[in-house]
């Protein structure tokens, strides 16, 4: 499609869960609902259109052993793009991916800086590993480096205990979160276990990643404070394998991981039923492949979230949460077109008919 061509998307345009239109136009890279008046080269695409999908927990530039080279990071981003993911919240990466901002053919990235973890309490090569007295300073640094988010590692295995344990004293977390908020950043945290959650939520955290430790007594607290969760169920599916690998050295941790896995769907459904905001994230990068957003949406539906709400968790609702536009008049044209109605079967997301990024057909 040439720079001066107009794209006509015709069929059903899902502007929002209750706003369905018959067509839209892409003119000069932006969305319009008014038919162009000047005679121009027009290309028509038929189908069901959604805003570009959101992966709210994805790691571009991260591999199994830490940062990857630029070519590998580019391929990761292209893989995500190929599945319709056009907006990424990069929930922690040791790589500098600012160069992608100059690439109109790559998904837009909202960065959380680098993970901040306790010394020897996270995957080697991923995080700043520090002690509590240094937490506020590191949070301030990553808040300035990121795009409005900071990522903490809220818990990890304590080898002396042989089980998951919180990483940060309550007072340190409170001071760090307050500093991030002062600088205009929101804070999220990796949390698997139950006993890391209350202190972080009461300290003012904005989001919890994974949230497998949510229990009936904690769910009302999350709902009252409006703390979102990104369950990453495609990652939680790996817990049994992780538990098998750690059985010999850490049997208590292994048993705990299996319990968290077994109740994962009940945990997510309980959160949703209580009104906790739930968003789609895959935890791609590290050890998980990119391009899993459709599988994560399907997992949310399996957990009991209605299909329309699972779609919102990767489209309208997710974009609103992250402060980015959807299929709004004048917005950059980032959209995905499908052959059939994704509201009827979310598995349709795995097979985009057309992908449009910044007004250009890229897939």
Return the structural class. alpha/beta
Gyration radius, in Å = 21 Å
What global shape is seen?
globular
Question: What does the main sheet amount to?
Answer: 7 strands, mixed
Distance N terminus to C terminus?
12 Å
Overall pLDDT, averaged?
96
Helix segment count?
A: 12
Instruction: Please estimate the helix content.
Output: 25-40%
Beta-strand fraction estimate: 25-35%
- Adjacency order of strands in the biggest sheet: 3-2-1-4-18-19-20
List the uncertain runs.
none
DSSP E strands, number: 20
What's this entry about, in short?
The protein is of the alpha/beta class and 363 residues long.
Structure description:
The chain is α/β, with parallel strands linked by helices. Helix content is 30%, strand content 26%. The protein has 12 helices and 20 strands. The strands form 6 sheets. The protein has a 7-stranded mixed sheet, with no helix packed on it. The chain has a 4-stranded parallel sheet with strand order 12-15-16-17. Strand 2 and strand 3 form a beta hairpin. Helix 2 packs parallel to helix 3. The longest helix has 13 residues. The radius of gyration is 21 Å and the shape is globular. The protein starts with 5 loop residues before the first strand and ends with a strand. The model has no long low-confidence stretch (mean pLDDT 96).
List keywords for this structure.
globular; seven-stranded mixed beta sheet; 363 residues; alpha/beta; 26% strand; four-stranded parallel beta sheet; 12 helices
Q: What is the element layout, followed by pairings?
A:
Elements: E1 6-16, E2 19-27, E3 30-32, E4 42-51, E5 53-58, E6 62-63, E7 66-67, H1 70-82, E8 85-90, E9 108-111, E10 116-118, E11 128-130, H2 135-145, E12 149-153, E13 155-158, E14 163-166, H3 170-182, E15 186-191, H4 197-202, E16 207-210, H5 219-225, E17 228-230, H6 233-236, H7 239-246, H8 251-262, H9 264-273, H10 293-303, H11 307-312, H12 316-322, E18 335-338, E19 354-357, E20 360-361
Parallel strand pairs: 1-4, 5-8, 8-9, 10-11, 12-15, 15-16, 16-17
Antiparallel strand pairs: 1-2, 2-3, 4-18, 6-7, 13-14, 18-19, 19-20
Helix pairs in contact: 2-3, 7-8
């Amino acid at each position: 499609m040439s720079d001066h061509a107009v794209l006509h998307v015709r069929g059903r345009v899902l502007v929002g869960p209750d706003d369905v239109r018959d067509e839209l136009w892409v003119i000069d890279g932006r969305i319009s609902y008014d038919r162009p008046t000047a005679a121009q080269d027009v290309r028509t695409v038929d189908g069901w259109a959604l805003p570009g999908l959101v992966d709210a927990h994805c790691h571009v530039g991260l591999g199994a052993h830490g940062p990857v080279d630029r070519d590998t990071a580019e391929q990761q981003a292209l893989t995500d793009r190929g599945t319709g993911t056009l907006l990424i919240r990069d929930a922690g990466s040791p790589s500098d991916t600012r160069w992608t901002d100059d690439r109109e053919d790559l998904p837009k990235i909202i960065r959380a800086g680098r993970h901040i973890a306790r010394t020897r309490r996270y995957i080697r090569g991923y995080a700043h590993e520090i002690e509590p007295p240094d937490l506020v300073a590191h949070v301030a640094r990553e808040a300035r480096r990121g795009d409005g988010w900071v990522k903490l590692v809220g818990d990890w295995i304590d080898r002396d205990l042989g089980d998951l344990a919180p990483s940060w004293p309550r007072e340190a977390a409170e001071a760090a979160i307050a500093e991030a908020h002062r600088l205009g950043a929101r804070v999220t945290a990796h949390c698997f276990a139950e006993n890391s959650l209350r202190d972080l939520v009461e300290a003012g955290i904005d989001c919890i990643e994974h949230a497998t430790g949510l229990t009936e007594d904690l769910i009302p607290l999350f709902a009252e404070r409006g703390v979102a969760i990104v369950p990453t169920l495609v990652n939680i599916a790996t817990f049994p394998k992780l538990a098998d690998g750690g059985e010999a050295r850490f049997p208590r941790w292994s048993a705990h991981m299996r319990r968290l896995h077994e109740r994962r769907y009940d945990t997510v459904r309980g959160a949703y039923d209580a009104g906790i905001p739930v968003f789609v994230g895959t935890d791609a990068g590290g050890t998980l492949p990119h391009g899993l957003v459709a599988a994560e949406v399907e997992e949310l539906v399996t957990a009991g979230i209605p299909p329309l709400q699972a779609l919102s968790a990767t489209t309208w609702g997710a974009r609103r949460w992250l402060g980015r536009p959807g299929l709004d008049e004048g917005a950059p044209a980032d959209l995905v077109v499908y052959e059939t109605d994704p509201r009827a079967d979310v598995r349709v997301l795995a097979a985009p008919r057309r992908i449009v990024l910044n007004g250009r057909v890229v897939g």
